[in-house]
Amino acid sequence: MAADTFDRALALVLDLEGGFVDHPRDPGGATNLGVTRATLAKARGRPVTVSDVRALTRAEAGTIYRRSYWDAVRGDDLPAGLDLAVFDYAVNSGPSRAVRSLQAVLGTVQDGRIGPKTIAAAAARNTAETVRALTRERLRFLRALSTWPVFGRGWTSRTTRVEAAALAAAAAAPSAPQTILSSSQPREETRHMGETKSPLASRTVWANIIGLGSLALGTAGVQTGALDQSGLAEALAQVAAGISFIASTYFRLQATKQITPAVK
Question: What is the pLDDT of residues 209-233, one digit of tens each?
């Protein structure tokens, strides 16, 4: 992932989360920039007050998001776009829930921890399809919550906005690098397909010539029954191929000498 991927994802999450709120129906309680009182206390390693939550800075919130959410879902190892979708899901519903939903979509073991198999499965799948499937799974989970009637509209708006941003990021991501061969380094398959064999180096041609010759000699009364047409055709084809190779090499050297600029 690019070095600024987390910064862009964080900017969107902070914009979605907004400032300080303390909704009586929100089980997270006092929240600022999406960081709850419990999350802030865990990050600082001590109890915090509502005033501490209100005074939370964007810099400290960014540090918490990086350590407790982005790194927890291995955002740096996920494909562009999917990293944002999983990250925001983790912020909204917890890293374990977000990872299990991703694993359900990918068909890997749902243990809530992203390991090599989950990373490989995510890389192997079409990112846009995975993002859409994860969005559906996220909304399915949210609709089952008892607080959906209160926060459902906001959650839906947030989820669809994240999906749109994730799909845009996935579409803008560079494709896997491909080896580009120059004209001086033709592909092996192309070189072989482009080569033509001299007709005189073909065993089939010589066999036909010998066959016609035998027919003509037979018509003239000459016996050709003991003639090994196959062996003779092979020998003549080998000789013709050798002569063709020597001739082509000679003419190639002559052409090279003609186009080589004089050294002054």
Answer: 555 454 444 445 544 444 444 455 4
pTM score above 0.85: no
Q: Cα–Cα distance between 175 and 170 in angstroms, integer? A: 10
Q: Do residues 110 and 96 lie in contact, with contact meaning Cβ atoms separated by under 8 Å?
A: no
Q: For 32-42, write each residue's pLDDT tens digit.
A: 999 999 999 99
Pairing of strands 31-32, 35-36: antiparallel
Helix or strand (DSSP H, E) at 182: none
Q: Which run of H or of E encompasses 45?
A: none
Q: CATH fold of 5-172, please?
A: Chitosanase, subunit A; domain 1 (1.20.141)
Token pair of 148 as six digits: 């959906």
Domain with CATH 1.20.141.10 in the chain: 5-172
Residue the block writes with tokens 């995510």 = 122
Q: Is residue 112 within 8 Å of 86, Cβ to Cβ?
A: no
| Phi, psi (rounded to 5 degrees) for 15 | -65, -40
Q: Pick from 248, 86, 238, 67: which is nearest to 162 by CA? A: 86
SS3 180: coil
d(CA 67, CA 36): 15
Asked whether the beta carbons of 134 and 87 are under 8 A apart, the reply is no
Three state DSSP letters for 96-134 = HHHHHHHHHHHCCCCCCCCCHHHHHHHHHCCHHHHHHHH
Residue 193: CB atoms within 10 A of its CB come to: 10
Angle between helices 82-93 and 95-106 (to 10 degrees): 140
d(CA 92, CA 139): 12
CB 131 within 8 A of CB 167: yes
